[in-house]
Each structure stands twice: as C-alpha cells, then as structure tokens.
Amino acid sequence: MTSRQSILDFMRETAYKPMTYQELERHFGVDDAFEFKEFLKTLNQLEQDGEIIRTRNDRYGVPERMNLLRGRMQAHAKGFGFLIPEDKDHADVYIHANDMNSAMNGDTVFVRITGKGGPGGNRLEGEVVRVITRANTQIVGTFQHHESYGFVVPDDRRINRDIFIPQDKFLGAVDGMKVVVQLVKYPEGRAAAEGEVIEVLGHKDDPGVDILSIIRKYGLPEAFHEEVILEADAVPDAIRPEELAGRRDLRHKKIVTIDGEDAKDLDDAVCVERLTNGNYLLTVSIADVGYYVKEGSALDREAYNRGCSVYLVDRVIPMLPHRLSNGICSLNPRVDRLTMTCEMELDEGANVVRHDIYPSVIKTVERMTYTNVRKMLTLPEEELEDAGLIAKYGYLWDEFRLMEELAMKLRGKRMARGAIDFDFSEAKILVDRDGKPYDIVGRERSIAEMMIEEFMLAANETVAEHFHWLKVPFLYRIHEQPDGEKLQHFMEFIANFGYAVRGRGDTIHPRALQSLLEQIKGTKEETVISTVLLRSMKQAKYDAQTTGHYGLAAEFYSHFTSPIRRYPDLVIHRVMREVLEGGGVLTEERLEALASRMDDIARQSSERERIAVEAERETEALKKAEFMLDKIGEEFEGIISSVTSSACLWSWTIQSKGSSGSAI
C-alpha cells in the first residue's frame, strides 16, 4: 500500500515533474482494484489537506515546487488582502481584489506569486489559486429585506460583500434584525455568497444585542457543555487533609492577594520578607488549577478550546466554570488553598540569588484591593485612621512598604536592562443594566498595580529559566525582534519631531526604544509616537521554544501566574508538578508525549488570545462610540493618532456635563 509520506517524498525530489494520477499509478506499481481505490483516496486526501495540488491539466505536485505559497488570508474592507505565509521566513504577499478568487478573511489558501509592485516595487504580489480551508462558516450581520429575498450586511467589514438569503431561509427575520447566517455557497466571480439564517439575535437597537452580536461574530462560547459542568460539580468545595501530603505548608506566612475591587477569580498571592542577611524573600503562590483540571478531562478539553477568559465591557466569558474559578481555585481570604509557589531570594540589587519552586498550601490573611494598598502607601496616617484602614490593615503596613521597596528595585533593574514600558492611559467603560455606557474613567496604574506587575514578571522569568535548563517540554511567552522595515519607517516618522534612535532596523536594542519613551514623556507628541511605536512591534505569542522576549529584554519568559484564565499557564503548572514530583526526571516516553503537544497548544493559545483581544477591543470601541452619541455638536480636544486615506483615528479626553474620563 502506497503511503502519504512516500507520495510526498517522491514529489519533493529535485527531478520530479507534475504527473497525472495514471503516471503516478504506474510509478508506484498500483496493479489491483482495491489498491487503486486506496491510492486515489490518498491522493484526494493529500489534495484536500493542502499537502499537494492538482493543476488545471490534472497533474499533481507539491506547492513549494509549483511556485505556490500556503498561508492565511488577511482581508481588507476595500476588497484586497494579504497572504500571511505559514513559512515564517517569507514576506507577506499583496493580493488585489480581482485576484482573491472567492477567498475570505481568515481562509487558508494557496497563492501564486505573480510579480512585484507597490511603492518602490519591492512588495510581493500574487493571486489566490485555491482555498484549502474556510475560516468563515457562519457570519453575523444585519438583515435587509428586499421583498422576495434578503441580504445580510456582515458586521465584519473585512467581509466586504453582502450575503444573499433566499426567501425560505429568513427564519422569521425582519428588516434591521441582527442575525447569524450559515454559509451554503461562497462567492464566485460576481455572484454573492449565499446563506441561511440560523439564529435571530434581535433588533440591532435592542439592549444587549450589540455585545451578543460580537460574541457570535467571534464564536465565543457562552455556556459550558453538560459533561464539563458535571466534572466541575464533582470537585470538592474544601481541601481534604490527605491532599496536603508532599506540599510545603505556608499557612503561617502573611500572604495576601491584591486585585481590583470587582475581581472574583483570585489566582495569585504574594508575600515579601526581610531575611537576616539583609536580602528579600519574595514568595509568589499561584492557584494549583492543574490539580483539579486533569489532562485529557472534559474540563481540560474545554479550557484548551477556549484558550483564555474573555473580558468584555459588560461580562466575562470564563475559561473555566465559576465553581472552579470563583470557588476552590480562587485564593479567597482565610481559607486553605492548594498552590504552586515560586520562592525567590533577591539581593539589594534585586538579583535573584536563590530560588525554589514547589507545590504548597496557603491561607491568605487578607483580600486586598489595589485602591486600599495604594492608600496605605500614599496617604497620611491621619487620613488612614479616619478611613478605618489602620484598624483593619495596620498589621500589614510594614509588609506593604517592603513590597514597595522591592518592587521599585525590580522595576529599576528591568528598565536599566532595556525593557520597553508603554505607559498608555487605559479607559474603563461603565455601563448600566441595559449595557448603555454612562461614563468612561481612566484606569489607574498606581504603585499597587506596579508592585504586583513586578512580582509576577519576576516569577514568570524565574520559572521559565528553571524549566528551560531542565530540558523538559514547556510553553514560553516570546516576543520576536521587530520587523526591520517597520522600525525604519518608525525612525523616519520620529525624525519629523526631531527625535532619533540609535541603531538600525532590527539591530535596535530595546533599551534605545525605552530611552525614547522616557524622552517624550509629558510632551504633546507622546501619545502619537508611543502608538506608532507599538504598531511597529510584533505581537507576543506562545511557543514551545524560547527565543526571548524583546519587549521585556528578557532571555527567558513564560506565563505561570494566571492558570484560572489562561490555558498555557495551566499546562505548564501540570508539567511543573509532574517534574517536581518525579524528582526532575520524566521517562523518555512521557517526554515525547508532552513534546508532541506543545507546538499545537502554543498555536491554539496564541490564536484564541488574538480572538479574545479583538473581541475585547471591538466591544470597547462600540461602547465608546455609543457614549459619544449624545455629544454630537460639542467640542473636545483631541490628538490625531493615525491617518489613512479615508479616515482619521482619534484619541480624545472627555470633560462634559460633569462626566470625566478619557477615551482612547
């Protein structure tokens, strides 16, 4: 029987020229009816999977030998698109609207390079030869009724052609309703895509329909499957004594959680002590979610599929059921909780001189908020007395001051090595029960937030380096060097303001960029330069190999501190405990099993994170625009942060009718 691999190996040979199936049949000596049938099946499957391609004259070959590139289509609202190649070393390819050949945003396609064009004539251009897999099977949009037929105008502007709906496929939808459409035909030439309405969400102006449309658009799962709920319900509400075996008991320490007022899933707790040798002992304990979410379980499969929790303006779509995320896994005050701890001894220069990582049990003494910690560290004692904070938290005053001292040293060290710190003003949108925004306020990044940020960064780096040197399969958070061409454009842009950065292209050290951010701090051009710089950087992502984190100027980095809301953290928690319990040694078979999954988990987690970020940004932009609806005609000061051929994107500060805040 001819295998897939033998066919691929043959077609990749230098001397191979595309053959018909009859010629391939003769080459492989296929001589009986059953074998011939299986051979054709294998060819068809390879073609369907995009491993080989069939030409117009029915000859087969591998894409790389036929001047074809495989990748993901990134479409634009104006009809053109870009191929993002799977080959990371290959540049993106521009696809003219006339050469899209039915491809839609997100589709996996084959593209043939047709030449070069664009400014300077250096941009690769191509045409879509074949769509391998469709990314869009369902579309969310607004229904328009045209007597005997209908159209759905997609919410996603990157799908720039309306969907035709036959009259018997309306599902009761009327003009102006938001609907979900199942595609039954994709666009071909001038013919529109065709679909059928499978869900009516409500009228586009009804309360809550706007956010629900975004949830459907990005395919965000709202409810958990029954088997997932059953598994979550089977998890006990309290820790049993026998579960403490093999865990270090930290219940005697003054460990606290510090989070926002509305946080319910508390997954990190900290403690800082002064040692007799003058060094600091930083203890970061993270909820041991992996103890309850077993590998391969229904809970684990669901967490993998979701990838992360999604934080929309008016709701949270959690990665794990609330029984876990707000219950036994949440580090609630004054109750025993199972954790994974990273303990670090740091000297006066904030260098980690010793560390230890182990399973533990903790009992936090307080559930602190950023607001109260900030007050404890910044307000005069009399005001704290009046507010009752001394009576309540006075016994932790020395601990908070020690935390501040260490955090500032960690931050100073990080900045000195060149970490890039974008200090953007973030906005928090306040909505009423109907989802209508009534105010936009700035999110404060006070000393309390900075303390937790520095402690989590230190733990994540320590964990990443520790397990890298153990040479076990792991997941890292990486941030690649910026694209040299984009950085060159950025340097030309800032030259207009009289600024310069040392270095050239992708040889620019992050320290040089951080120096620029410090130089522009407080200037009127700070926002626009910071924004353009951020757009010049690559996105951070997950990877099974560590290549460093450019933005943090860190050689090793992972995500260890949020296993309740991020799947990569949950995965490495399980690896960590397995390695620790096995004395640092895993069998060859287990190492291979873990390694075989890491690339896929990294890809899935990065993809789900991108979807979550896009959904979160879209809901925020929607509510900001809605907040400004009743202010038409009023004047505001703004900064133009970007100009395109058709529109300006704005940052503005709102000071109107007693309502204050900033909308970005």
Radius of gyration, Cα only, in angstroms?
Answer: 28 Å
Structural class: alpha+beta
> How many domains, in number, for the residues?
5
Shape: globular
Counting DSSP H or I runs of 4 or more residues, the number of helices is 18
Helix percentage: 25-40%
Q: Biggest sheet: strands side by side, in what order?
A: 3-4-5-7-6
What descriptive keywords fit this protein?
five-stranded mixed barrel, 33% helix, Arc Repressor Mutant, subunit A, disordered C terminus, OB fold (Dihydrolipoamide Acetyltransferase, E2P), alpha+beta, 664 residues, globular
Short description:
By secondary structure, this protein is α+β, with helices and mostly antiparallel strands. Helix content is about 35%, strand content about 25%.
Verbal overview:
By secondary structure, this protein is of the alpha+beta class. It folds into 5 domains: 4-61, Winged helix-like DNA-binding domain superfamily/Winged helix DNA-binding domain (Arc Repressor Mutant, subunit A, Orthogonal Bundle); 67-133, OB fold (Dihydrolipoamide Acetyltransferase, E2P) (Beta Barrel), CATH 2.40.50.140; 138-206, OB fold (Dihydrolipoamide Acetyltransferase, E2P); 226-478 and 550-620, no CATH class; 628-664, no CATH class. Helices cover 33% and strands 25% of the residues. The chain has 18 helices and 28 strands. Strands 3-4-5-7-6 form a 5-stranded mixed β-barrel. A 5-stranded mixed barrel has the order 8-9-10-12-11. The chain has a 5-stranded mixed beta sheet with strand order 13-20-19-16-15. A hairpin with a 7-residue loop joins β4 and β5 (93-95). α4 runs antiparallel to α18 and α14 (484-495) runs antiparallel to α16. It is globular, with a radius of gyration of 28 Å.
